[in-house]
Amino acid sequence: MTTSMADERRDQLEQYLQNVTVDPNMLRSDVFVDFLKLVQLDTFSITTKKVSLDIFLPDGRSIKVEALTSDTAERVLEVVSHKVGLCRELLGFFGLFLIQFCKEGKLSVMKKLVDFELPYVSLRSSEVENCGIGLRKWYLDPSLDSRLMDCRVAIDLIYMQAIQDIEKEWAKPTEEQKQKLEALRKEDNQTKFLELSQEVRHYGYVQLDPCTCDYPEPGCGAVISVGNNEISCCVTLPDNQTQDVIFQMNRVKCWQVTFLGSLLDMDGPQQTLNQNLELRFQYGEDSHWQWFVIYTQQAFLLSSCLKKMISDKMVKLAAENPEMQIEVPEQGKSRKYHVQQSQQKACSSFLPRKSKIKIVEVDCGFGTIKEDL
285: exposed, middle or buried (C-beta count within 10 Å: 0-12, 13-18, 19+)? Predict the structure, then answer.
């Protein structure tokens, strides 16, 4: 086999594996999930053994859980929920995340761990310093808080996260709201605190680290917050003025994540790859479709959030219209509900490694995930 033939076969295999890992039908297969687990362990030369994992709660405290290096995020989440006393039927409202702890008490949510991902391996293989596994709520429609009000532990968790989000300035209360929330916090009135939080700007959103975008012109700095069926961008213009731009999810036709790489060391025994990520989405307004690009290392987290907002919408429709059936797309699973609306569908495609999307100094591997709604 020639070098070019081997490269082509490798590209085709990579493209196949990328596509099947986002197929819910494949991820329901125990055989395929076992294969994905083995790939993760073999890639980083990790053997199956018992380990103790620190799982960080939204208030910064951590709990230790016993697990195997081969345990998936889905399994570890079950263990965590049992340890904290979270009702099993509410597991779907929470998830495990890779979190970076930064200076001055700041933190960054790097990614959502998908069901088949191995938390121990993800933590060990992360190139980001000061990382940990965190438990956070996993829904982006703030009104879904109401589904958790019958579970004391669930209330505690989302209350902790609400306080953290306000302290980190991800949620942005007015001065009047801040005073009322502080009074309710002193009274330890969690239910009223969460009810008032519903009125706070960006409550329940996921905020990304500062990044850049191409709107209204290339190279503009941006702070992106995602939630409540919108992508909220605070854009810094070249004259240092700021502009708030809101993109409604019902006008997003599709999006794609692209990872671009450049080889940093071509002469060493192992070539070093510098990766940069972007998420671009097609947005319609006044019968005109336009592509917008966000350059961020959290592009996969952003993509997960966009998909989650669609899923949250389907869950609400299911509750409001129990007589009709719809299948809600989820990471690694698929749940059927009954709603009076045609199914929204998410599918994925990838560009081969050699496809040229952007010019880089050296040809190397990059691909595209495209989510068509």
Answer: exposed
Asked whether the beta carbons of 370 and 348 are under 8 A apart, the reply is: yes
Percentage of residues in the chain having pLDDT higher than 70: 80
The residue type of 292 is F
- pLDDT tens per residue, range 228-247: 999 999 999 989 999 999 99
Q: Indicate the domain borders of the chain.
A: 44-144, 206-372
Strand partners, 225: 207, 232
Determine the Cα angle at 207 with ends 201 and 211, to 5°.
125
Higher-pLDDT residue of 39, 320? 39
| pLDDT > 90 fraction of the chain, expressed in percent and rounded | 59
Can you name the CATH fold of 206-372? PH-domain like (2.30.29)
Task: Specify the residue for token string 């005073």.
Answer: 179
If you average pLDDT over residues 93-98, what whole number do you get?
Answer: 97
pLDDT for position 315: 80
**Type of residue found at 282:** Q
Instruction: State the Cα–Cα distance between residues 298 and 98, nearest whole angstrom.
Output: 11
**pLDDT greater than 80 at residue 23:** no
Quote the tokens at residue 75: 């399994």
- Going by their DSSP bridges, the two strands 242-248 and 230-236 should be labelled as antiparallel
- Our measurement of the distance from residue 13's CA atom to the centroid of its chain's CA atoms, rounded to an integer in Å, reads 25
Q: In the β-sheet with 94-101, what is the strand arrangement from edge to edge?
A: 62-68, 50-56, 131-137, 94-101, 107-112
SS3 343: coil
- Domain 44-144: which topology? Ubiquitin-like (UB roll) (3.10.20)
The reported pLDDT for the residue numbered 33 is 85
Q: SS3 breakdown of the chain: % helix, strand, coil, rounded to 5? A: 35, 30, 35
- Is pLDDT of 165 > 50? yes
CA dist., res. 120 & res. 131, Å (int): 12
| pLDDT band of 344, cuts 50, 70, 90 | very low
pLDDT of 18 reads 65
Alpha helices in the chain (DSSP H): 3-20, 24-27, 30-43, 73-84, 119-125, 152-167, 175-186, 190-197, 299-320
C-alpha to C-alpha distances, 360 to 1, 4, 31, 307, nearest whole angstrom: 29, 21, 38, 29
